[in-house]
Amino acid sequence: MQTTGRGHVRIIAGTLRGSKLPVAERDGLRPTADRTRETLFNWLAMKLAGRKVLDGFAGSGVLGFEAASRGASEVVLLERDAITAASLRASQERLKVAGMRIIQVDALTWLSANADQQFDGVFLDPPFADAPWPKLWPLLLPMLSDGAWVFIETGIDSELELPPGLLSEKFGKSRHSKYLLAQWHKPVIG
């Protein structure tokens, strides 16, 4: 994990460029590395402005804050840990980030209760030990607009099967993780 000093990650670009986000010492919290984020946001260059984005397992919040910094119109961050969620709210207030909602809740619980929501993009970087994929896909896919992008980061040794309609476009790996950017196209039935 790359940080900007003990317990912080730095936003790479956009209106919040150079801003630091604290990283609490919590079990399973592992911010997406700087190099991985740089690759991801290069892939998303023209896909963020004015879009509604979900960060399903926010952790440090760096993916959601980076999306807000680069023009996403609305960013929803889900974080189940109360201390981490409080830290995210403090960062949002300190950096004066509009259009961001931070919700302290388990991602699967929130997804099952908010089926009416629609997103143009989603970040999925859960703690590697959780592997929520089989339960997550049926809840998340109906919330995706056609053509929505989905970023997924998993452990380097994890196996991940994408559901029908979610097509991998780009792939990368680091020392500790592998990641991909996929696009959603609702399967045609019949």
Order of helices and strands: EEHEHEHEHEHEEE
Strand order of the largest sheet: 5-4-3-6-7-9-8
Q: State the major sheet.
A: 7 strands, mixed
Instruction: Quote the distance from N terminus to C terminus.
Output: 46 Å
Measured by DSSP, the beta-strand proportion falls in: 25-35%
| CATH H-tier superfamily | Vaccinia Virus protein VP39
Helix proportion: 10-25%
CATH architecture: 3-Layer(aba) Sandwich
Arithmetic mean pLDDT? 90
Number of E-type strands: 9
Structural class: alpha/beta
CATH fold description: Rossmann fold
What ranges have pLDDT less than 50 throughout 5 or more consecutive residues? 1-6
Q: What coarse outline follows from CA principal-axis ratios? A: globular
Radius of gyration: 15 Å
Number of domains: 1
Question: DSSP helix count?
Answer: 5
Q: For this structure, what is the CATH class?
A: Alpha Beta
Which descriptors apply to this entry?
190 residues, alpha/beta, 7-stranded mixed beta sheet, single chain, disordered N terminus, two-stranded antiparallel ribbon, Rossmann fold, 25% helix, 5 helices
How would you sum up this structure, described in words?
The chain is of the alpha/beta class and 190 residues long. The chain has one domain (8-184): Vaccinia Virus protein VP39 (Rossmann fold, 3-Layer(aba) Sandwich), CATH 3.40.50.150. 25% of the residues lie in helices and 29% in strands. It contains five helices and nine strands. The strands form two sheets. It has a seven-stranded mixed sheet, with helices on one face. A two-stranded antiparallel sheet has the order 1-2. Helix 3 links the parallel strand 4 (74-79) and strand 5 (100-104). The protein is globular, with a radius of gyration of 15 Å. Mean pLDDT is 90; it is low at 1-6.
